[in-house]
């Protein structure tokens, strides 16, 4: 197949910033606890009425102009999200309409926080095989309306935001996509859920009273799951990809918890300073986090042309995955 490269990135963040101190006036928590246990200081939160499709379209427009590609040239739009404006239609078709991409198909990829990496891999496959030429891949979330602002176990962790990347045939001299591996372990499906509102738990007075329309997470079980699975998975991923850890210029991890990023890299004998971190000011933006981090790392020249980057994520499902590019 053809070589496939990242041609441009863009992000969108809501203006409103929510601090740990503000949170400590809403639930029984503290700035010290949140910083120590997660690394998060502040996060962006959408205004009422500001939707995932709004942030997604804004990030998309910026990625298109960074890549110098008109919306008319986009053949497919794939959106990794866990907080679509509505269950259906998806965010993808709404973005297609907003940015005016007349030739593009569009859909969402729902795979927890790993959705954007799943979507990226699908985009690569479609371009390499010749089905598509240019694909817009977005990770976007407005999870804040789906959070229980009385539950300190979850509400302190997440932030809203969107990141977009344009993928296309690699320019001369660019290696681009190297390899990807995507996994799911459905026996752990109950670790992160939004329990009610669908067939399994249709909306009722009971589900509302039980706060079942909000995200629920067994945080410590997720923490242990990721620390158990990810180091061996990434070691195996590098080996299969014929890459050495020392060749990776920077690691773009899902920005859930600083202790997870540090712990996993230590187990790989990699200096944690090799991982780009923005969760301190963004929190966990779920499926958006790897694309936002990639964009910021490129903006800050932590990553540049020719650099080897590994993006890796994990989330509800449980899903996890990794994808490697030479930029
Ligand atoms: N403020 C103060 N105390 C708190 C808070 C808070 N916000 N939240 C929990 N605690 C308390 C707990 O109640 C518990 O108290 P106890 O000892 O009296 O029972 C204590 O702190 C320790 O709780 P743990 O859950 O064991 O703390 P842990 O060190 O595991 O940190 C955290 C919790 C930050 C949630 C961590 O487990 C984590 O980051 N897990 C991973 C979550 C994640 O990465 N999710 C990503 C996927 S998200 C997606 O796909 C949408």
Summarize the structure.
It comes from Aminirod propionatiphilus. The chain is of the alpha/beta class and 327 residues long.
Write up this protein.
With 327 residues, the protein is an alpha/beta fold. It contains eleven helices and 13 strands. It has helices spanning 20-24, 31-38, 52-67, 91-99, 115-128, 152-155, 205-209, 219-240, 258-267, 279-282, 289-299, and strands at 4-12, 17-19, 42-44, 76-80, 105-109, 135-141, 161-169, 176-184, 192-193, 216-217, 250-253, 308-315, 319-326. The strands form four sheets. It has a five-stranded mixed beta sheet, sandwiched between helices. Strands 8-13-12-11 form a four-stranded mixed beta sheet, with helices on both faces. β12 (308-315) and β13 form a beta hairpin. The longest helix is centred in the last third of the chain and has 22 residues, at 219-240. The chain is globular and about 55 Å long. The site of acetyl coenzyme *A has 22 residues, from α2, α6 and α8. It comes from Aminirod propionatiphilus.
How are the secondary structure elements laid out?
Layout: E1 4-12, E2 17-19, H1 20-24, H2 31-38, E3 42-44, H3 52-67, E4 76-80, H4 91-99, E5 105-109, H5 115-128, E6 135-141, H6 152-155, E7 161-169, E8 176-184, E9 192-193, H7 205-209, E10 216-217, H8 219-240, E11 250-253, H9 258-267, H10 279-282, H11 289-299, E12 308-315, E13 319-326
Parallel strand pairs: 4-5, 4-6, 11-12
Antiparallel strand pairs: 1-7, 2-3, 6-7, 8-13, 9-10, 12-13
Helix pairs in contact: 3-4, 8-9
Bound molecules: acetyl coenzyme *A.
């Amino acid at each position: 197949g053809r070589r496939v490269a990242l041609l441009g990135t863009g992000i969108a963040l809501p203006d409103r910033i929510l601090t740990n101190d503000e949170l400590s006036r809403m639930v029984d928590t503290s700035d010290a606890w949140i910083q120590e246990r997660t690394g998060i200081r502040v996060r962006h939160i959408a205004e009422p009425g500001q939707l995932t499709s709004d942030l997604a379209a804004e990030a998309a427009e910026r990625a298109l102009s960074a890549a110098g590609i008109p919306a008319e040239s986009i053949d497919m739009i794939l959106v990794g999200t866990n907080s679509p404006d509505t269950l259906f239609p998806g965010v993808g078709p709404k973005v297609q309409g907003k940015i005016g991409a007349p030739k593009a198909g569009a859909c969402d990829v729902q795979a927890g926080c790993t959705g954007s990496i799943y979507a990226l891999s699908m985009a690569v496959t479609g371009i390499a095989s010749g089905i598509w030429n240019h694909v817009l891949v977005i990770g976007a979330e407005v999870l804040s309306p789906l959070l229980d602002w009385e539950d300190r176990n979850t509400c302190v962790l997440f932030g809203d935001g969107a990141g977009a990347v344009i993928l296309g045939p690699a320019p001369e001299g660019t290696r681009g996509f190297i390899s990807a591996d995507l996994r799911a372990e459905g026996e752990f499906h109950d670790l992160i859920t939004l329990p009610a509102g669908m067939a399994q738990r249709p909306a009722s007075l009971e589900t509302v009273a039980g706060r079942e329309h909000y995200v629920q997470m067994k945080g410590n079980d997720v923490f242990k799951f990721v620390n158990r699975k990810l180091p061996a998975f990434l070691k195996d991923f590098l080996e299969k990809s014929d890459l050495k850890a020392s060749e990776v210029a920077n690691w773009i991890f899902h920005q859930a918890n600083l202790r997870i990023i540090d712990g996993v890299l230590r187990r790989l004998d990699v200096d944690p300073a090799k991982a780009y971190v923005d969760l301190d000011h963004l929190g966990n933006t779920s499926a958006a986090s790897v694309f936002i981090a990639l964009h910021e790392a490129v903006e800050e020249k932590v990553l540049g042309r020719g650099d080897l980057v590994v993006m890796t994520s994990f989330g509800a499902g449980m899903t996890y995955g990794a994808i490697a590019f030479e930029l």
